[in-house]
């Protein structure tokens, strides 16, 4: 008998760049099949997952709680104030402790460096629920959404209009790995970091993808299939909000900007939106917007991701988890 181990089994997801193209395809395939009605069963039965949030969250926390529960597991949501990472206890100690109790950690941490440290001290898988540097679960859901909207990921023409932030970084890696034609438009000074661009460009050279960073929306949007934006001021950058409003004003995704793309282009935003800043009500609520389908896809993609990471790991057999299972 040939036993195949899913390539993601037991692994962390800290950066999209940790994945191979085939890993991304496996997650998207499983997510699409589940969305179409396939049953994933209860691969998390008897498992407890700790969900830590150092920043506010609606989509990520709720979709992970629902995903873990649907897969038969038990989510434990922890807010930053309770554990005060780095103040009451070091990141390393928080990680060591959670690793003794839970079977995995989903963490939204302010600093990506802290996330790497958390992963270093946890034997069980750690999943990035967003840091200052990346938002891989968001971009996996975005990839599924692009595939649904355009019929493909490789060769899809995606134009990201906005800041070279965490979401953009994860997108550059995903685009590089999966052969996307990705154009990033931002004001001067808001480009992604040089090391990110270099790494993504090397991936694109291998996959046949195209990456372009520029400052003018019109040429990048001319034949775009997807117009993507994110907030101009990410969480933690509030002190820069006024300056960013001024710097980004000409790149607002409004009805005029959308007409630079073909009429069948679809509009995406990871949400939460700062309506009236990076996107107008008319666009986000308009006929080309697919932002709520995109938000729904967080659930399908994370369910698939959890199923692939935890499916073949040995099941815990402690009295506590057995008792928890008996109560279900
Ligand atoms: N897109 C996203 O991650 O949303 P939340 O901040 O609400 O989790
Ligand atoms: N770039 C945004 C994404 C929110 C989901 C932030 O970091 O606040």
């Amino acid at each position: 008998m040939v036993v195949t181990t899913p390539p993601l089994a037991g692994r962390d997801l800290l950066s999209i760049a940790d994945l191979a193209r085939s890993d991304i395809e496996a997650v998207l395939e499983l997510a699409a099949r589940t969305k179409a009605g396939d049953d994933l069963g209860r691969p998390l039965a008897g498992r407890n997952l700790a969900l830590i949030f150092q920043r506010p969250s609606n989509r990520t926390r709720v979709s992970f709680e629902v995903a873990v529960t649907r897969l038969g597991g038990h989510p434990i949501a922890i807010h930053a104030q309770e554990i005060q990472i780095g103040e009451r206890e070091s990141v390393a100690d928080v990680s060591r402790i959670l690793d003794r109790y839970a079977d995995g950690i989903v963490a939204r941490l302010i600093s990506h460096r802290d996330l790497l440290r958390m992963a270093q001290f946890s034997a069980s898988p750690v999943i990035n629920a967003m840091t200052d540097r990346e938002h891989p679960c968001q971009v996996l859901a975005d990839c599924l959404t692009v595939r649904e909207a355009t019929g493909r990921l490789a060769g899809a023409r995606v134009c990201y209009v906005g800041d070279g932030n965490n979401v953009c970084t994860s997108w550059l890696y995903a685009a590089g790995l999966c052969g996307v034609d990705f154009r990033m438009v931002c004001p001067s000074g808001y480009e992604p970091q040089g090391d990110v661009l270099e790494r993504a460009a090397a991936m694109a050279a291998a996959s046949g993808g195209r990456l372009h960073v520029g400052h003018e929306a019109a040429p990048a949007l001319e034949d775009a299939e997807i117009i993507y934006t994110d907030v101009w001021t990410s969480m933690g950058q509030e002190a820069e909000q006024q300056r960013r409003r001024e710097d980004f004003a000409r790149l607002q995704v409004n009805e005029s900007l959308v007409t630079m793309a073909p009429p069948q282009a679809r509009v995406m935003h990871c949400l939460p939106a700062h309506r009236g800043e990076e996107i107008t009500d008319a666009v986000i609520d308009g006929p080309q917007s697919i932002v709520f389908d995109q938000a729904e896809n967080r659930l399908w993609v994370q369910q698939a991701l959890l199923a692939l990471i935890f499916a073949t790991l040995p099941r815990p057999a402690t009295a506590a988890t057995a008792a928890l299972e008996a109560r279900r």
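Residues 153 and 195 are 24 Å apart (CA to CA). The pocket of phosphoric acid mono(formamide)ester (ligand 1) is lined by residues 57-60, 130, 138, 270-272 (CB under 6 Å).
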